Each structure stands twice: as structure tokens, then as C-alpha cells.
Amino acid sequence: QVYLAESGGGSVQAGGSLTVSCVASAASTSIFSGLCMAWFRQAPGKEREGVAVINSGGNTIYADSMKDRFTISRDNGKNSLYLQMNSLKPEDSAMYYCAADHTMYCTTVWRRGRVGFDYWGQGTQVTVSS
Questions:
Q1: Cβ count near 41 (within 10 Å)
Q2: Cα-based torsion angle of the residue sequence 3, 37, 97, 73 in order, rounded to the nearest 10 degrees
Q3: Are 116 and 109 in contact (CB under 8 A)?
Q4: Tell me, what's the pLDDT at 115?
């Protein structure tokens, strides 16, 4: 079992930056380092959508609309996942969720969307004002 806890959300003006974090507990460093980790987001009335994913080797995939502004990273020594968000827009306002899965096939899991991930955090709210 892996428990995920997000933090770092808040309110920011359009054009600003914010970094959200996710810490995995009940997982040893060796287990965390092997996890496929991702960020999803969900705005009110909309489907949960994938933002970015990072595999155990540090390879990343981004949703097209975010790849030039967002950066996903991980620190295996701290069991932590990060999402740095720059040039934020009001449409980036959403609950941001951390997700994880025990898989070697991170790209395959990512393509399945939210159903591909077994572990989820409670989310952290990001609000971007115009």
C-alpha cells in the first residue's frame, strides 16, 4: 500500500508560478523509486485529466497543453514528486492529484488515463485568478 499526500496548492495570479508536491508514505525508498508517478487535475464539472507522468528512470510525458509550461520531477531520496507550473492561466485552476502505480510499463499506464493508476492522493487546490 502506498499513501500519497499532496501539498503546495494555493491562489496565484495569471502569469505566476507555483510548485505542488506529493510525498509517498508507507513506501520504502526502493519501492518509491520504482513507482510510475503522475499528476492529474480536475476542474469543477470536468473529467480528471492527465498532466504529466514520470517513470522510474526519470523519463517524462506531458499533456500537449502543458508541456511548455509545466515540469514534473521526482526525488527518490525524499519519496517525493513535484510539479512546477509556470505561466499559469485561469484555465489551470483545478484540484491537482498525485497518482502512482507499481508498473514497469509507465507509458502504457499513462495512456489508460486515471484508471491505470492504483494509488491516489486527496488533492491540492490550485486557483489562478485573471
A1: 21
A2: 120
A3: yes
A4: 86
